[in-house]
Every structure is written in structure tokens, then in C-alpha cells.
Amino acid sequence: MKPEWIDPHELRFSETNARNHGERSVRAVMKSLEEFGQQKPIVVSAENEVIAGHGTLAAAMRLKLPKVWIVRSALDQDAAQAYAIADNRTADLAKWDEAVLRTSLAEISAAGDNLLAASGFSKKEAEAFLAAAAGAPIAKLGDEYTEACADDVEWRHCKECGHRWPK
Prior knowledge:
Elements: E1 4-6, H1 23-36, E2 42-44, E3 50-52, H2 54-62, E4 68-72, H3 77-93, H4 98-111, H5 113-118, H6 123-133, E5 155-157, E6 164-166
Parallel strand pairs: 2-4
Antiparallel strand pairs: 1-4, 2-3, 5-6
Helix pairs in contact: 1-2, 4-6
């Protein structure tokens, strides 16, 4: 696959994308893009339909980035849909090594608030993990957020091309 830089408005979100990105998710990706730049491409079909990277595209549009990095997949429609599910589901199946996470959060916290914010963890979550390193019980991740709020996402629509993206 050959990477390309294109205007994000040339891409369209997949109607079959099963993963919704709520406000917290999009904001986390925005912070990551601002801090680190786009470190992995959005995977798209030959017709510029997003297969993987909907959250990155939504964040890039909100940041008004002029170009995004993409790769074009040769997968047929059924395989592309299965890959899109696998791309999200495989991350769900992974587990944190909490000792390594605590150490990493402590190190990036010491480096500055921008890096911590760009990691996707809230200050409250990071503080819970750092407190655990000092002997306090570990707080469960995700108490302040669930994907259920993704149902409340508002969409913007382009009247000219019909393109839609999360607000």
C-alpha cells in the first residue's frame, strides 16, 4: 500500500461503521493529533470510503487539517467490513499491564500535562493509577465514560456532496 496525503473532505464515513465515536473519543483523538501528528494512516476503499480510522477523520475535520494520510485497501466490500470490525474489536480484547501503565503514566505526567492529555487518559484516571502505585486500590477504568453516549453524536451534512461527519 502506498500512503497518500489528501483533503479529508474527499473521504466519506462508512454507513456500515459499527463503532461510534462520542465526544470524549473525538476530543482524545484531536489532542493526540495536535501533540503527535497523524502517526498512522486512515484505511480507505478505492472509492474514498473509510474502512478504518473514522475517529481520526472526525478529529482531523474538527481540527480543520488540510490533509490526512491515507492508504487504499484492495479488500472487497465484505472483507473491508470484516476488517473494520476486527480493527476495533482486537483493541477491545487487549488488557492493560497495570504496573507498566502506572510507570508510563507517572513518566508522561512528569513530562507535562499536554502529553498526559494526548495519551487519552483523563487526569482523574491517571491520578487513580498513580495513587495505586503508592498502595491505594486501583480504580476501574471507564467509570466516567461509556460508549453509550456515542448515540448522542450530532452529525453535520454537506449540502453539496452529501458528505456527513460527527459534529
